[in-house]
Design brief:
With 221 residues, this protein is mainly beta. The chain has one domain: Jelly Rolls, CATH 2.60.120. The protein is 3% helix and 48% strand. The strands form two sheets. The chain has an eight-stranded antiparallel β-sheet with strand order 1-3-6-15-8-9-10-11, with no helix packed on it. It is globular. The two termini are 13 Å apart. The relative contact order is 0.26.
Length: 221
Amino acid sequence: MKTRHLASAGIVFALAVFFIRPANGAGTNSTASLTDGWKQVPFKYEVQHPYDLPLTNRYDFDPTNNIHHFWVYFTDKPHAPPPNRTTARTEMRLESFSTGECMFDGDVNISPGTFACIAQVFDAKHGPVTMLIAHPDGTVTIGNHDVIKTNAIGHWWNLKMTNDTKADGKIRIYVDNVLAGTYNSRGPREYYFKCGVYSRKDSERSDVRYRNIKMWEKEEK
């Protein structure tokens, strides 16, 4: 197994894997084939949230249904005090990986009015590589351009993001287990996945739920 770590301080949670079950939602059979050759692995995470508020003011986890609830207001403060000037967020920052190929897997439900980045593939030293943006009209885009889903608000759908760390590696985004986009990664370096809400300019309240979050990996050959 790869060595993984969280690079920044914060409240850290650990999720242990005891068994593998298919995610609730569309495409159970295709899920089995899509993850064929992958191994589900335990992972740790921290939740970044407005620095002047308790975590529970912007995040909730219900273990009875495995739902993580994230919300934030554009007027909230960033996740770290000045000189930080980033936009307000409530995001799960999963632990880093630097070898092999990894996959984030989770069901997502976006609340009406959300205008936020809801997931990222992140380069630990140089910032986001791929950002998934939820728009109030119900579309989800990669950055501000490629539409990967429409009618995304108010119901559960499955999101998978893969990142291959080798020199010619690719990032692949799947919506309900159908490939929605392929993008260049940045080669061997440290990466991590994020999910939650990272507010966009002129947004108000952004609100999203994730359930059945899993991490998968392929070992280097």
